[in-house]
Amino acid sequence: QIQLVESGGGLVQPGGSLRLSCAASGTISRAYVMSWYRQAPGKRRELVARFITSNDTNYADFVKGRFTISRDSAKNILYLQMDNLKPEDTAIYLCHGFFSGGKEVMEYWGQGTQVTVSS
Fold first, then answer.
1. Own/partner pairs for 70-76, CB < 8 Å, 24+ apart?
2. Residue 23, SS3?
3. Which of 48, 99, 93, 103 is nearest to 73 (CA)?
4. What is the DSSP string of 27-93?
5. What's phi and psi for 63, nearest 5 deg?
6. pLDDT of res. 21
7. CA-atom Rg of the chain in angstroms
8. How far is the C-alpha of 31 from the C-alpha of 107, rounded, in Å?
9. In 10 A of CB 24, how many CB atoms?
């Protein structure tokens, strides 16, 4: 069984920064695409950033230039550096990834970490 555990959320003032981490554990043969999503109260879950390779990353328009996604492949940890945070960034941030532990490739979600941007 593969688990994703997020950390690094918290309360920050507008303009501040946070760094989220997502640690994948379990029997992992290979990690594929990993992403960060977010969900605010009463809103749909939305893609924030996707890591395909170190040279191939995608960002939602509302975070371009402010957020940076990266991955430590050796440790199976996904990061999201969030700078110049805005109140509208307040949400639960969830880690998502595709992994194979054997023959099948399956998708996994973490439980999420709360990010609150408020003065």
1. 71/34, 73/31, 75/23, 76/23, 76/24, 76/25, 76/28, 76/31
2. strand
3. 99
4. S-SEEEEEEEEEE-TTS--EEEEEEEETTEEEE-GGGTTTEEEEEETTTTEEEEEE-S--GGG-EEE
5. -120, -5
6. 98
7. 14
8. 10
9. 21
Six token digits for residue 114? 């709360």
CB proximity list for 23: less than 8 A, separation 6 or greater:
4, 5, 7, 75, 76, 77
Q: Both tokens of residue 109?
A: 């979600």
The residue among 85, 92, 96 whose CA lies nearest residue 114 is 92
Q: What is the pLDDT of residue 37?
A: 98
* pLDDT in single tens digits along all 119 residues of the chain: 899 999 999 999 999 999 999 999 999 989 999 999 999 999 999 999 999 999 999 999 999 999 999 999 999 999 999 999 999 999 999 999 999 988 889 999 999 999 999 99
Residue 49 CA, chain-centre distance (Å), reads 7
